[in-house]
Amino acid sequence: MAFTVTGFLSRLPLSMYGVSTVIMIATLRDSYLLAGTVAAVDMAATVVLVPRISRLIDRYGQARVAVPAVVISSIGSVALVLCAHHDAPDWTLFATSILSTAPNTGGMVRARWAHIYRDDKQSLHTANSFEQVLDEVCFIVGPILAVALCTGLSPTAGVLVAAALTLVGTGLFAAQRGTEPPLETPDEGTVVSPWRNKGLQVIISTFLFTGTIFGSLEVVTVAYTEHLGHESAAGVVLALQSVGSAIAGLLFGLVTLRGETSRHFLLGLAGMAVCMLPLVLAEGMLSLVGLMFVAGMASSPTMIISMSLLQEIVPAGQINEGMAMTTTALLGGIALGSASGGWTIDRFGPEAGYWLPGTAAGLALVVALAGFPRLRSAVSRPESVAQPS
Fold first, then answer.
1. Boundary (domain end) residue, out of 176, 202, 218
2. Are residues 9 and 152 in the same domain?
3. In this predicted model, what pLDDT tens digit does every residue of 284-295 receive, in sequence order?
4. Which residues cross the membrane (predicted)?
5. Which of 73, 81, 342, 357 has the greatest number of C-beta atoms within 10 Å?
6. What is the pTM of this model?
7. 104-122 as b/e, with b when 16 or more CB fall inside 10 Å?
8. Sign of torsion over alpha carbons 323, 326, 329, 333
9. Which residues contact 362 (CB under 8 A, 6 or more apart)?
10. What's the CA angle centered on 250, arms 244 and 252, to 5 degrees?
11. pLDDT tens across 304-314, in order?
12. In the listed set 153, 176, 199, which residue is the last one of a domain according to the structure?
Protein backbone atom coordinates (compact mmCIF):
# COMPACT_ATOMS: atom_id res chain seq x y z
CA MET A 1 0.00 0.00 0.00
CA ALA A 2 1.38 3.40 -1.00
CA PHE A 3 0.07 5.06 2.16
CA THR A 4 2.45 2.88 4.20
CA VAL A 5 5.48 4.21 2.30
CA THR A 6 4.48 7.85 2.71
CA GLY A 7 3.46 7.17 6.31
CA PHE A 8 6.94 5.82 7.01
CA LEU A 9 8.49 8.89 5.38
CA SER A 10 6.45 11.24 7.57
CA ARG A 11 7.10 9.45 10.87
CA LEU A 12 10.81 8.83 10.43
CA PRO A 13 11.45 12.40 11.69
CA LEU A 14 9.86 11.54 15.05
CA SER A 15 13.11 9.83 16.01
CA MET A 16 15.17 12.73 14.60
CA TYR A 17 13.66 15.83 16.20
CA GLY A 18 14.80 15.27 19.78
CA VAL A 19 18.47 14.57 19.15
CA SER A 20 18.60 17.17 16.34
CA THR A 21 17.16 19.86 18.61
CA VAL A 22 19.58 19.05 21.42
CA ILE A 23 22.63 19.09 19.15
CA MET A 24 21.53 22.29 17.39
CA ILE A 25 20.86 24.31 20.53
CA ALA A 26 23.84 22.91 22.46
CA THR A 27 26.13 23.81 19.55
CA LEU A 28 24.71 27.25 18.75
CA ARG A 29 23.97 28.35 22.33
CA ASP A 30 26.66 26.36 24.17
CA SER A 31 24.16 25.13 26.77
CA TYR A 32 23.06 21.53 27.24
CA LEU A 33 20.72 22.70 30.00
CA LEU A 34 18.85 24.95 27.57
CA ALA A 35 18.92 22.27 24.86
CA GLY A 36 17.54 19.58 27.15
CA THR A 37 14.86 21.88 28.55
CA VAL A 38 13.64 22.87 25.08
CA ALA A 39 13.50 19.18 24.08
CA ALA A 40 11.54 18.40 27.26
CA VAL A 41 9.06 21.21 26.58
CA ASP A 42 8.65 19.94 23.02
CA MET A 43 7.81 16.46 24.34
CA ALA A 44 5.35 17.93 26.85
CA ALA A 45 3.66 19.85 24.03
CA THR A 46 3.38 16.62 22.06
CA VAL A 47 1.71 14.89 25.00
CA VAL A 48 -0.87 17.69 25.30
CA LEU A 49 -1.50 18.64 21.67
CA VAL A 50 -1.31 15.43 19.63
CA PRO A 51 -4.45 13.81 21.16
CA ARG A 52 -6.36 17.03 20.44
CA ILE A 53 -5.17 17.11 16.84
CA SER A 54 -6.16 13.45 16.53
CA ARG A 55 -9.62 14.21 17.91
CA LEU A 56 -10.07 16.74 15.12
CA ILE A 57 -8.90 14.12 12.62
CA ASP A 58 -11.57 11.71 13.86
CA ARG A 59 -14.20 14.44 13.54
CA TYR A 60 -13.24 16.09 10.24
CA GLY A 61 -11.04 13.58 8.41
CA GLN A 62 -7.33 12.90 8.01
CA ALA A 63 -6.60 15.13 5.01
CA ARG A 64 -8.63 18.13 6.19
CA VAL A 65 -6.80 18.29 9.53
CA ALA A 66 -3.36 16.75 8.90
CA VAL A 67 -2.40 19.05 6.02
CA PRO A 68 -2.89 22.40 7.82
CA ALA A 69 -1.46 20.88 11.02
CA VAL A 70 1.75 19.77 9.29
CA VAL A 71 2.12 23.14 7.54
CA ILE A 72 1.95 24.88 10.94
CA SER A 73 4.39 22.32 12.34
CA SER A 74 6.89 22.94 9.54
CA ILE A 75 6.65 26.71 10.02
CA GLY A 76 7.35 26.16 13.72
CA SER A 77 10.41 24.02 12.98
CA VAL A 78 11.87 26.58 10.56
CA ALA A 79 11.15 29.35 13.09
CA LEU A 80 12.97 27.32 15.77
CA VAL A 81 16.04 27.05 13.53
CA LEU A 82 15.99 30.78 12.75
CA CYS A 83 15.63 31.72 16.41
CA ALA A 84 18.47 29.42 17.43
CA HIS A 85 20.73 30.59 14.60
CA HIS A 86 20.13 34.31 15.05
CA ASP A 87 20.50 34.33 18.84
CA ALA A 88 16.88 35.22 19.57
CA PRO A 89 15.77 35.27 23.24
CA ASP A 90 15.53 31.88 24.90
CA TRP A 91 11.75 32.07 25.26
CA THR A 92 11.38 32.03 21.47
CA LEU A 93 12.98 28.58 21.38
CA PHE A 94 10.29 27.23 23.69
CA ALA A 95 7.47 28.94 21.79
CA THR A 96 8.59 27.70 18.38
CA SER A 97 9.25 24.16 19.64
CA ILE A 98 5.63 24.00 20.85
CA LEU A 99 4.45 25.26 17.47
CA SER A 100 6.41 22.51 15.71
CA THR A 101 4.20 19.70 17.08
CA ALA A 102 3.20 17.43 14.16
CA PRO A 103 0.14 15.17 13.76
CA ASN A 104 0.41 11.48 14.62
CA THR A 105 0.86 9.84 11.22
CA GLY A 106 1.49 6.41 12.73
CA GLY A 107 -2.01 6.47 14.20
CA MET A 108 -3.51 7.55 10.88
CA VAL A 109 -1.75 4.72 9.03
CA ARG A 110 -3.02 2.14 11.51
CA ALA A 111 -6.53 3.64 11.32
CA ARG A 112 -6.48 2.96 7.57
CA TRP A 113 -5.41 -0.63 8.09
CA ALA A 114 -8.11 -1.03 10.76
CA HIS A 115 -10.74 0.10 8.24
CA ILE A 116 -9.40 -1.99 5.35
CA TYR A 117 -9.21 -5.18 7.44
CA ARG A 118 -12.11 -4.48 9.79
CA ASP A 119 -13.51 -7.96 9.07
CA ASP A 120 -10.19 -9.83 8.81
CA LYS A 121 -8.48 -10.12 12.19
CA GLN A 122 -5.46 -12.10 10.95
CA SER A 123 -4.70 -9.67 8.11
CA LEU A 124 -5.00 -6.76 10.54
CA HIS A 125 -2.56 -8.52 12.86
CA THR A 126 -0.08 -8.87 9.98
CA ALA A 127 -0.52 -5.20 9.02
CA ASN A 128 0.00 -4.05 12.62
CA SER A 129 3.13 -6.21 12.81
CA PHE A 130 4.51 -4.67 9.64
CA GLU A 131 3.86 -1.13 10.91
CA GLN A 132 5.54 -1.90 14.22
CA VAL A 133 8.62 -3.16 12.39
CA LEU A 134 8.67 0.10 10.41
CA ASP A 135 8.53 2.00 13.72
CA GLU A 136 11.57 0.07 14.91
CA VAL A 137 13.39 0.86 11.66
CA CYS A 138 12.60 4.54 12.24
CA PHE A 139 14.27 4.43 15.64
CA ILE A 140 17.31 2.63 14.23
CA VAL A 141 17.83 4.91 11.23
CA GLY A 142 16.47 8.25 12.51
CA PRO A 143 18.98 9.08 15.28
CA ILE A 144 21.93 7.96 13.13
CA LEU A 145 20.74 10.17 10.26
CA ALA A 146 20.11 13.10 12.60
CA VAL A 147 23.59 12.96 14.15
CA ALA A 148 25.21 12.61 10.72
CA LEU A 149 23.35 15.68 9.40
CA CYS A 150 24.05 17.83 12.46
CA THR A 151 27.74 16.96 12.68
CA GLY A 152 28.52 16.51 8.99
CA LEU A 153 26.59 19.38 7.39
CA SER A 154 25.34 21.94 9.89
CA PRO A 155 23.95 22.01 13.44
CA THR A 156 20.60 23.07 11.95
CA ALA A 157 20.49 20.41 9.21
CA GLY A 158 18.86 17.72 11.34
CA VAL A 159 15.83 19.82 12.29
CA LEU A 160 15.42 21.20 8.75
CA VAL A 161 15.58 17.78 7.08
CA ALA A 162 13.18 16.35 9.66
CA ALA A 163 10.74 19.19 9.00
CA ALA A 164 10.99 18.67 5.23
CA LEU A 165 10.38 14.93 5.56
CA THR A 166 7.39 15.54 7.80
CA LEU A 167 5.86 18.08 5.43
CA VAL A 168 6.40 16.07 2.24
CA GLY A 169 5.55 12.69 3.75
CA THR A 170 2.35 13.87 5.43
CA GLY A 171 1.27 15.78 2.32
CA LEU A 172 1.74 12.72 0.10
CA PHE A 173 0.02 10.54 2.68
CA ALA A 174 -3.01 12.85 2.91
CA ALA A 175 -3.25 13.01 -0.89
CA GLN A 176 -4.15 9.30 -0.99
CA ARG A 177 -7.83 9.82 -0.33
CA GLY A 178 -8.91 6.41 -1.63
CA THR A 179 -7.76 4.61 1.54
CA GLU A 180 -8.81 7.32 4.01
CA PRO A 181 -11.38 5.89 6.45
CA PRO A 182 -14.87 7.38 6.18
CA LEU A 183 -16.01 9.64 8.98
CA GLU A 184 -18.07 8.09 11.74
CA THR A 185 -20.86 10.41 12.89
CA PRO A 186 -22.48 9.09 16.06
CA ASP A 187 -25.44 10.89 17.54
CA GLU A 188 -24.57 13.91 19.67
CA GLY A 189 -24.87 13.27 23.37
CA THR A 190 -24.21 9.52 23.10
CA VAL A 191 -20.44 9.57 22.59
CA VAL A 192 -18.24 8.60 25.51
CA SER A 193 -14.84 10.29 25.64
CA PRO A 194 -11.93 7.89 25.11
CA TRP A 195 -10.64 9.06 28.49
CA ARG A 196 -13.66 7.30 30.06
CA ASN A 197 -13.07 4.05 28.18
CA LYS A 198 -12.06 1.70 31.00
CA GLY A 199 -10.19 -0.69 28.74
CA LEU A 200 -8.23 2.15 27.17
CA GLN A 201 -7.38 3.45 30.64
CA VAL A 202 -5.66 0.14 31.37
CA ILE A 203 -3.67 0.24 28.11
CA ILE A 204 -2.61 3.85 28.74
CA SER A 205 -1.43 2.95 32.26
CA THR A 206 0.66 0.07 30.96
CA PHE A 207 2.08 2.27 28.19
CA LEU A 208 3.27 4.73 30.80
CA PHE A 209 5.41 2.00 32.37
CA THR A 210 6.40 0.66 28.94
CA GLY A 211 7.70 4.11 28.05
CA THR A 212 9.60 4.13 31.34
CA ILE A 213 11.39 0.98 30.17
CA PHE A 214 12.61 2.66 26.98
CA GLY A 215 13.49 6.00 28.61
CA SER A 216 15.51 4.43 31.41
CA LEU A 217 17.18 1.97 29.04
CA GLU A 218 18.54 4.80 26.90
CA VAL A 219 19.99 6.85 29.78
CA VAL A 220 21.37 3.85 31.65
CA THR A 221 23.04 2.40 28.55
CA VAL A 222 24.76 5.69 27.75
CA ALA A 223 26.05 5.92 31.33
CA TYR A 224 27.06 2.25 31.48
CA THR A 225 29.02 2.26 28.21
CA GLU A 226 30.74 5.48 29.29
CA HIS A 227 31.61 3.83 32.62
CA LEU A 228 33.23 0.99 30.64
CA GLY A 229 35.18 3.47 28.50
CA HIS A 230 33.13 2.75 25.35
CA GLU A 231 30.84 5.78 25.25
CA SER A 232 30.90 5.86 21.44
CA ALA A 233 29.31 2.40 21.39
CA ALA A 234 26.11 3.50 23.16
CA GLY A 235 24.23 4.12 19.91
CA VAL A 236 25.15 0.72 18.50
CA VAL A 237 24.17 -1.06 21.72
CA LEU A 238 20.79 0.70 21.80
CA ALA A 239 20.28 -0.08 18.12
CA LEU A 240 20.68 -3.78 18.91
CA GLN A 241 17.64 -3.58 21.15
CA SER A 242 15.65 -2.16 18.23
CA VAL A 243 17.08 -4.79 15.89
CA GLY A 244 15.96 -7.56 18.24
CA SER A 245 12.55 -5.95 18.45
CA ALA A 246 12.24 -5.59 14.66
CA ILE A 247 13.19 -9.25 14.03
CA ALA A 248 10.70 -10.39 16.65
CA GLY A 249 8.04 -8.21 15.04
CA LEU A 250 8.64 -9.73 11.61
CA LEU A 251 8.37 -13.26 12.98
CA PHE A 252 5.35 -12.41 15.11
CA GLY A 253 3.53 -11.12 12.04
CA LEU A 254 3.65 -14.64 10.60
CA VAL A 255 1.95 -16.15 13.65
CA THR A 256 -1.77 -16.92 13.57
CA LEU A 257 -3.22 -15.69 16.85
CA ARG A 258 -6.03 -17.61 18.48
CA GLY A 259 -8.01 -16.74 21.56
CA GLU A 260 -8.62 -13.44 23.32
CA THR A 261 -6.43 -10.47 22.46
CA SER A 262 -6.58 -9.35 26.09
CA ARG A 263 -4.86 -12.60 27.15
CA HIS A 264 -2.22 -12.14 24.46
CA PHE A 265 -1.66 -8.65 25.89
CA LEU A 266 -0.84 -10.11 29.31
CA LEU A 267 1.50 -12.68 27.77
CA GLY A 268 3.30 -9.95 25.82
CA LEU A 269 3.87 -7.87 28.95
CA ALA A 270 5.08 -10.94 30.83
CA GLY A 271 7.49 -11.61 27.97
CA MET A 272 8.83 -8.06 28.22
CA ALA A 273 9.52 -8.54 31.92
CA VAL A 274 11.30 -11.84 31.25
CA CYS A 275 13.44 -10.30 28.50
CA MET A 276 14.32 -7.14 30.44
CA LEU A 277 15.25 -8.62 33.81
CA PRO A 278 18.46 -10.38 32.62
CA LEU A 279 19.99 -6.95 31.90
CA VAL A 280 20.96 -6.77 35.58
CA LEU A 281 23.45 -9.57 34.83
CA ALA A 282 25.44 -7.41 32.38
CA GLU A 283 29.17 -7.50 33.09
CA GLY A 284 31.07 -5.73 30.36
CA MET A 285 30.37 -4.91 26.73
CA LEU A 286 30.20 -8.45 25.39
CA SER A 287 27.45 -9.58 27.73
CA LEU A 288 25.61 -6.25 27.36
CA VAL A 289 25.44 -6.62 23.56
CA GLY A 290 23.75 -10.02 23.80
CA LEU A 291 21.43 -9.02 26.62
CA MET A 292 20.28 -5.87 24.81
CA PHE A 293 19.37 -7.91 21.74
CA VAL A 294 17.34 -10.27 23.93
CA ALA A 295 15.75 -7.33 25.77
CA GLY A 296 14.15 -6.16 22.54
CA MET A 297 12.66 -9.50 21.56
CA ALA A 298 9.31 -8.99 23.31
CA SER A 299 8.91 -5.27 22.60
CA SER A 300 7.43 -5.39 19.09
CA PRO A 301 5.07 -8.32 19.78
CA THR A 302 3.71 -6.49 22.83
CA MET A 303 3.22 -3.25 20.94
CA ILE A 304 1.54 -5.11 18.06
CA ILE A 305 -0.89 -6.83 20.42
CA SER A 306 -1.54 -3.50 22.14
CA MET A 307 -2.56 -1.88 18.85
CA SER A 308 -4.82 -4.81 17.99
CA LEU A 309 -6.44 -4.62 21.42
CA LEU A 310 -6.93 -0.87 21.12
CA GLN A 311 -8.60 -1.33 17.73
CA GLU A 312 -11.02 -3.77 19.37
CA ILE A 313 -12.04 -1.58 22.29
CA VAL A 314 -12.03 1.91 20.75
CA PRO A 315 -14.86 2.85 18.34
CA ALA A 316 -13.85 3.58 14.75
CA GLY A 317 -14.88 7.21 15.15
CA GLN A 318 -12.32 7.70 17.94
CA ILE A 319 -9.47 5.50 16.69
CA ASN A 320 -7.02 8.33 15.91
CA GLU A 321 -7.55 9.98 19.28
CA GLY A 322 -7.23 6.64 21.08
CA MET A 323 -3.94 5.83 19.36
CA ALA A 324 -2.62 9.32 20.04
CA MET A 325 -3.42 8.89 23.74
CA THR A 326 -1.39 5.69 23.94
CA THR A 327 1.47 7.31 22.03
CA THR A 328 1.56 10.28 24.38
CA ALA A 329 1.42 7.94 27.38
CA LEU A 330 4.47 6.19 25.93
CA LEU A 331 6.25 9.54 25.52
CA GLY A 332 5.37 10.52 29.07
CA GLY A 333 6.81 7.24 30.28
CA ILE A 334 10.00 7.85 28.30
CA ALA A 335 10.40 11.20 30.04
CA LEU A 336 9.76 9.55 33.41
CA GLY A 337 12.25 6.80 32.61
CA SER A 338 14.92 9.28 31.57
CA ALA A 339 14.50 11.24 34.81
CA SER A 340 14.43 8.16 37.06
CA GLY A 341 17.36 6.66 35.19
CA GLY A 342 19.46 9.77 35.73
CA TRP A 343 18.57 9.88 39.44
CA THR A 344 19.41 6.19 39.91
CA ILE A 345 22.75 6.52 38.14
CA ASP A 346 23.77 9.57 40.19
CA ARG A 347 22.77 7.90 43.44
CA PHE A 348 23.72 4.24 42.95
CA GLY A 349 25.97 4.12 39.89
CA PRO A 350 25.49 2.91 36.30
CA GLU A 351 25.50 -0.80 37.22
CA ALA A 352 22.34 -0.37 39.31
CA GLY A 353 20.47 1.39 36.52
CA TYR A 354 19.50 -1.80 34.69
CA TRP A 355 17.14 -2.71 37.51
CA LEU A 356 14.85 0.04 36.24
CA PRO A 357 13.73 -1.46 32.89
CA GLY A 358 12.92 -4.81 34.49
CA THR A 359 11.07 -3.14 37.36
CA ALA A 360 9.05 -0.98 34.98
CA ALA A 361 8.16 -4.05 32.89
CA GLY A 362 7.02 -5.84 36.03
CA LEU A 363 4.86 -2.88 37.05
CA ALA A 364 3.30 -2.76 33.57
CA LEU A 365 2.35 -6.43 33.96
CA VAL A 366 0.89 -5.84 37.44
CA VAL A 367 -1.25 -2.95 36.14
CA ALA A 368 -2.50 -5.09 33.26
CA LEU A 369 -3.33 -7.99 35.58
CA ALA A 370 -5.25 -5.67 37.90
CA GLY A 371 -7.14 -4.20 34.95
CA PHE A 372 -7.72 -7.48 33.10
CA PRO A 373 -11.47 -7.69 33.92
CA ARG A 374 -11.91 -4.17 32.55
CA LEU A 375 -10.04 -5.08 29.37
CA ARG A 376 -12.21 -8.15 28.76
CA SER A 377 -15.35 -6.15 29.42
CA ALA A 378 -14.26 -3.40 27.02
CA VAL A 379 -13.56 -5.93 24.27
CA SER A 380 -16.95 -7.60 24.65
CA ARG A 381 -18.78 -4.30 24.94
CA PRO A 382 -16.91 -1.38 23.25
CA GLU A 383 -17.70 1.90 25.00
CA SER A 384 -18.85 3.79 21.94
CA VAL A 385 -21.99 5.13 23.51
CA ALA A 386 -23.00 6.26 26.94
CA GLN A 387 -24.29 3.36 28.98
CA PRO A 388 -27.33 3.75 31.22
CA SER A 389 -26.54 4.09 34.88
1. 176
2. yes
3. 888 898 999 998
4. 12-28, 34-53, 65-84, 144-168, 202-224, 236-257, 264-282, 288-310, 322-340, 352-372
5. 357
6. 0.77
7. bbbbbbbbbbbbbbeeeee
8. negative
9. 273, 277
10. 95
11. 888 888 888 88
12. 176
